[in-house]
Amino acid sequence: MSYQIREMTIDDYEDIIKMFRETPGISVREADSRDATRVYLQRNPGLSFVAVADARIVGCVMSGHDGRRGYLQHLVVKPEYRKQGIGVGLFTACLDALQKIGIYKTHIFVLKTNETGNNFWRNQGWFLRDEINMYSYNRSENTNA
Length: 145
Description:
The protein is α+β, with helices and mostly antiparallel strands. It has helices spanning 13-22, 34-43, 86-100, 115-123; strands spanning 4-7, 49-53, 56-65, 70-77, 106-108.
């Protein structure tokens, strides 16, 4: 099976949000709205990608940065296309694009309950950070922000 990786555009939104909703371990929040996604892609041009096979989107990953560190968001590959190198191809495209703009260290947040995701990252040589705590603060009245 062959696939191609290309830059994600806002025109891909309906396909990717459907994948997010269908994928266990992926949380869809207000921050994943079409408008928020458009802003994210504009703020981080050339850093998010989709995988296309059989003339349809079968995987995606979004990435951005804060000027020092890169952050991956929502690496998803449809179950029937897994174990074919698509996930690795997607995150490698992000790491390559981030490196071109001088970002060499990248993080991803994975829900503790997402066993598939945690196993994937561990098997790719990413390491679990247990020396830090992550805290969040939500100024929105929407608890799903």
